Structure formats: structure tokens, C-alpha cells
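Let's practice the habit of predicting before peeking. Look at the sequence and jot down your guess about where helices and strands might fall. Then scroll down.
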Amino acid sequence: LIKSLTKSEKRHFKLYATRTQQKSSDLKFIQLFDLIDKSKHFNDELAQQKIGIKKSQLSSMKRHLYGQILTSLRLLHKKNNLDIEIREQLDYARILYGKGLYMQSLKLLERIRISADNQHLNLLSLEIMEFQKMIEERHITRSRGVPGKMEQLTESAQKKSQLILRSCKLSNLKIDLHGYYIKQGHIRTSEEAEAFKHTFGILLDDAMRDDLGFFEHIFLHQSYVWYHYILLDFEHCYEHARAWRRKFDENPNMIEEDPDLYMRGFHYELTCLNNMGRFIKFKACLEAFEDFLEVYDEKLSTTSEIIAFLYLNYAKLDLYILTGELDKGIQLIPFIFKKIKSYEDKIDKHRILVFSYKIAYLHLVKGEYDKAIDYLNQIIDLPSGHLREDIQCYARLMQLVAHYEMEHYELMDYLGRSTQRFIDKMEQLNTMQKTTIRMFRQLVKIPVSERQTFFKKCLEEMEEVHQLRSGKRAFLYLDIPTWLESKVRKVSMEQVLKEKFEVHSK
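Done guessing? Here is the structure:
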């Protein structure tokens, strides 16, 4: 916690902790704070020696320091987090009630309920109303004399509870869909698609789509985004991602309330546009994302900064691959890993290895096969189960391409069998993967003079595979047809990508 504090947060803590003391040195927990802050490798023995306390006192001091830091942070950040401020005011209302000041408590509750409603903080709003009802029930207040006051309060509480129930059902739905994707991935067959659509329809009807509030609309669009993404229907997926972000744009106060959810809308919008190859819209959306970050940069928390860094740079790498501007992507790599290092343990390994996959693909297309293999090994060497299995599968297929280009023919048969075993074990094998593995195992056995004809045959076969549902999914990860086209035409993948971009961007 201490290592995560900014300079302003440390300064605020010192002022808060020493507010009733003449010297900060008189407070041993401040000395503990300074020691942890300045130490690269903290240990208990060092603390006992430097501060002059017993081992039995140290754990209590740590707990006290931890609580003081959190209290200081709450005070500092409540002006930027309305929910924190409302909870504080709710605590004050409870204190007033405990002192027998019922009317003052009710007056405060009414004021903060309006704030909670304006920010769509439904759970807080319901908690406030339940407290109001309890006071009105147990004590004679002036509200009893106001016509319709009590009826209005009970009706509002009933509507709010129904809204929260719908919100819970919709959030459950989007989480269930996300879980389905993690476990099953994209839909592979028509039978799977029909069963999935049927299940989704039942769950969606149960979530009750009428009379939705702000976040309920967002949750509904999130559910549809996952639904269409799993079905590989990027057109409709994009429409819901766009509607999700538009809902925030229509309610700008909610962007400050939950910038992370707003940025996720950008991320899925950009992902769909990239998968569809819509360069003009992709670039416009990316520019809008950058404009948002320029305006809100200083208002973002550390967590929000990390989300912004991930989504923005994923999109930039995708853009440079889409346009064939590989040099720009490669120039971005040092910055990416510098930022990753600055966030240290705050970014999970999966996110880092997604960067590794995209960067490996950049180097592959650029013709820097040894560098591509270095990044691919970071993915392949990770124990299975620690990363999405689909990325591990396609990393191995990309490795086959890189080793072939480096003329490591003696490795190809071994790598092909190893890749097949891994994919069989992961139960990920699809037509594109099967065709690619077979192609490389045959390729090294064919005389060099006959390989051109073989590449043409494979390209035709891959174009047929692309028409299949599983093929559409597979080529999102690894564009084997572009590589085959480069071999048939005897040009670089970079040139083929640039030419495709020029055609599609007109």
C-alpha cells in the first residue's frame, strides 16, 4: 500500500497523521511509514531495530498504520468519488439518529438520496430509503402530516428494489457469457450456435428488459456484446459496443463516475472494428479514445491508468498491423515494457503475454523471425492453464512459420508433432490448425522446386477453410492466408498487408 502512494497522497497522510502532534518523530507509526517507504527490502527485524519496539508491538502498529493510511486516502479522494462521500454522510445520519436528532437525520438522508439517484447509485439509494422508512416507522415526524409523503417513499423503495433485481440479473447474464467464452471460446458449429442462442434467449427474458436504468442499459449492451462476440458476429457486436459508449456520452457525469466501464466500451468497439478491418472507423474511434484520455488523464485512478494503458496500446498495435505500419509498432515496444515495469505487480501475466503475442506477430510480419520466436517462447514456456489456451495454441502455430522462414527444417517435423499434441490435449483443434500443421509437416519433405505449386494449393485450401465458422475465428489470431500469398507472390508479408490496406481503405 505504501509503495503505491503518490507524492500528494504521502504528503496528505503526513499532514493527517501529525494533525494533533508537534513533531512527526514522536509518532512511532510515522517512523514505520518512513522506514517502509524508503526501504527496498523491508523486514520485521529491521523495523524493531530502527524504531525501538518489541516484536509483539509491531503487528499492532502495522494494523494501526494501515488503518490510518486508508482513512487518509478516503478523506483525500472522497471529493472525486461521490459514493465515498455519500457513505460518509450516511454514517453522519446514523450518528444524528443515535443522538435523538431524528429530523436532522431525515433532512440529511433526503439530500444524499437525491445525489445517489442522480448518479444511479441504486444500492446506496435503497439503503438510504430503508433508513428513512425505519425512522418514519419508529418515530412521529412531520412527514406524517405531509399528504402522500409516506406512500411516495414506499413506492420509490419498491421501484428501486425492482431496478436492483434487474441489474443483478443482467450483471449475472454478462458474467455467465464471459465465463462461457473463457471456458468454450467462440462457437464452432451450427449445433453449438443454436443451443447457445436458445440459452441466451431464456436468460435474457429472465433479466426483464423493460424499464431499465443507466447501468442496466449498459449491462444489457455488455451482454449483447459478449453474445455476438462469441458467435463471431462482429457487426452486431460493434453496434452494441457503440450503443454502450453512446449511453455514456449522453450522460457525461457518469463517465467520471465509472471511467473504467466507459473505456471498456471503447476497447470492444475497437476490437470489433479491427476484426472487421474497418480502418476509417477504427482510426476515428482510437482518436476519440485518445481525446478522452487527454481530458481525463489527471482524474484517473491508478487502476484506471492501467486500463487506459492496456486498451490504448493494444489498439495501437492492432492499428499498425492493420495498416502495415510495422515500424511504428516496433518503435512503440520499448515504451510498452517501460510502462509495464512501472506498474510492476499491478498488471497480471496474461495481459503482458497478450502484448508478447501481438509484438511477436509484428516481428513475424516484419521478417524479424528470431525476435518473433523470443516473444513466442515467453508464451509457450508458460505452464498450460496460466494463460488462455487459444493464445498458447496459436503461438505454437506462429512458431512453425518463424522456424520455417529461418530454414530450421530439421525442427519442423518435431515442432509439428509437438504442436499437434498440445492442441489435442487442450481440445482446441480446428480445421485451420489441422491444415496448418499438416502443411508444414509436408512442406519440408517437398523439393524446393515444387514448393511454389504447393503454396498455391495450400492457399486455395485455406480460402475454403476461411468460409467455415472455425476458420473465421482462427484467422483473427494468425493470418496464414496472407503468409501463403506472400510465398506465392515471392514478396514480404509486410507488402501484402500494405496492399490489402490500400484496397480496403479506399
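How did you do? The first helix runs from residue 7 to 17.
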